[in-house]
Amino acid sequence: MSLSIRIFLVYAVFIALTGYFVLSTVMKEVRPGVRQSTEETLVDTANLLAEIFKDDVRKGTLGQSRFNEVLKDYGLRKPDATIWELRKKQVNNRIYVTDARGIVLLDSAGLAVGQDYSRWNDVFLTLRGQYGARSTRSDPEDEHSSVMHVGAPILDQGVIIGVVTVAKPNSSLQPYVDRAERRLLWYGGGLMVLGLLMGALFSWWLSSALRRLTRYAQVVSEGQRVEVPHYRGGELEQLATAVEHMRTQLEGKAYVERYVHTLTHELKSPLAAIRGAAELLQDDMPEVQRQRFASNIQNESQRMQQLIERLLNLAMVEQRQELEERVAVPLAALIDELLAARSLAIERLTLSVEQHIEPALSLYGERFLLQQALANLLDNALDFTPSGGTLRLAAERKGAGIQLTLFNSAAAIPDYALSRLCERFYSLPRPHTGRKSTGLGLNFVAEVVQLHGGELKIENVEGGVLVSLWL
Q1: What's the CA gap between 127 and 125, in Å, rounded?
Q2: CATH entry, 3-178, from 3.30.360.10, 3.30.450.20, 3.40.395.10, 3.90.79.10
Q3: What is the rounded CA–CA span in Å between residue 167 and residue 133?
Q4: Which residues pair with 362 in a beta bridge?
């Protein structure tokens, strides 16, 4: 399955789920929302009628008043109103009035005059000074026959002398509820379709951009020249720039020639020494000279082996994109182990070693790589520290990581060399022997630090050189 289809499917599922939950939530709120707004209107109407009927209820003349005819005429009215594109052709409100005992005095439907309504909540609660309302089915078997009743008190100098109730069947509201739900479904469905179209367009655009990069990489891999795709900002532009930079690096003949030339030069010197010593050993000579030439062969062989091993280790690290493991490595114990392995060299140079690392301090990373990197740093420090000098190791928490520092008393590093110390094959002569190393140690350290997401800094300080390692 192509990437564009995968992105579109994920986007479509997200849109569908979001649309479903939003629409279902809104749809559930339509019906109660309409009823709540209707109930609010019924409250206003009931309170208005309570003021209209107050005088007649107080005098006891409500039954003989003109309101019987008014309510009868009201029930016969046929309004021709268009509400939300829906036609309203009859009135639906029922109005009845009860006295302080709950006996019906007036009923617009003409059905309940003289009956006791004091048990119904609209009358029962209102007579007790509370908000009286109820919803009752006119047909107990039909759930759609419910009718809302809202009561309002008739007050005479603060005393409740009766109740006016306005009732409205919920079935009269259903057309408006149905229309609102239909419109929500149409609008929601339209938005979902529009979202899917936008998702499809985005997936096509992203897939097209990636296909251009893929074709570019394929053409480059075949050795052909092609212009890098251009994008305006964002990650795609960064990706295109990175691919072009990678191509430049891979095709950089000068870089390859310099690499091979330097490596050949490094191997040429020990090979020449081994060959010369081997030729001389074929002649008769004193045993002392024989031992010296044999020792030269051994030393140069070790140098070549060290060069090859470091190249292999460096190549391994450069090809790695991430750590194979991430474990807690006790820093103090690791440093102690490395110093113990170099105790003879430290004693020979009568160096003073200071260690300021808490036993509980740990680095999180790949132990083997960290051990090799710190070993390279220590070896470098030992090579450049004069007899009677000082090695000082310290570590502390800094931000989200740990800062490890290694100070060795030594001559200052030349300014021209400071920026090149981590270059492959670049090395300075050792003061003890005058010879250069493979020039791969610090390059290896830099790669390990980068793989751990850290930083390496080498600088001259008063009295020596300070290497700072943040991991």
Answers
A1: 5
A2: 3.30.450.20
A3: 10
A4: 330
Q: Which residue, among 369, 371, 372, 362, has the nearest Cα to 322 in the 3D structure? A: 369
pLDDT of residue 97: 93
Task: Give the C-alpha separation, 293 to 279, whole Å.
Answer: 10
| Residue the block writes with tokens 């990069």 | 213
Identify the band that residue 199 occupies on the pLDDT scale cut at 50, 70 and 90. Answer: confident
The answer to whether 122 and 134 are in contact (CB under 8 A) is yes
CA distance 168 to 151: 12
pLDDT at 209 over 90: no
**DSSP conformation class of 65:** S
Phi first, then psi, for residue 468 (nearest 5°) are -115, 130
The CATH number assigned to the domain with range 320-471 reads 3.30.565.10
Considering only CA atoms, which of 168, 71, 61, 49 is closest in space to residue 105? Answer: 61
Distance CA 465, CA 386 (A): 12
Helix (DSSP H) and strand (DSSP E) numbers for the chain: 12, 14
Question: Which residues of the chain form CATH 3.30.450.20?
Answer: 3-178
> Which of 147-161, 242-256, 288-302, 394-408 shows the lowest per-residue confidence on average (mean pLDDT)?
242-256
Grouping H, G, I as helix, E, B as strand and the rest as coil, residue 39 is: helix
**pTM as predicted:** 0.41
Distance between CA atoms of 213 and 228, rounded to whole angstroms? 8
CATH 3.30.565.10 range(s) for the chain read 320-471
CA-to-CA dists, residue 317 to 310, 323, 408, 444, angstroms:
10, 10, 27, 8
Tokens of 274: 């081994």
* Element (DSSP H or E) covering residue 245: helix 234-251
> How far is the C-alpha of 461 from the C-alpha of 227, rounded, in Å?
48
Residue 262 has pLDDT above 60, yes or no: no
At residue 54, φ and ψ (nearest 5 deg) are -60, -50
Distance set, CA 301 to CA 269, 295, 308, 389 (Å): 11, 10, 11, 30
- pLDDT at residue 84 in the model: 65
Place of tokens 């090799």: 372
Tell me how far apart the alpha carbons of residues 216 and 229 are, in angstroms, rounded to a whole number: 8
User: Residue 441 in contact with residue 467, Cβ under 8 Å?
Assistant: no
Residue 461 CA to residue 44 CA, distance in Å, equals 87
467 - beta bridge partners? 406, 458
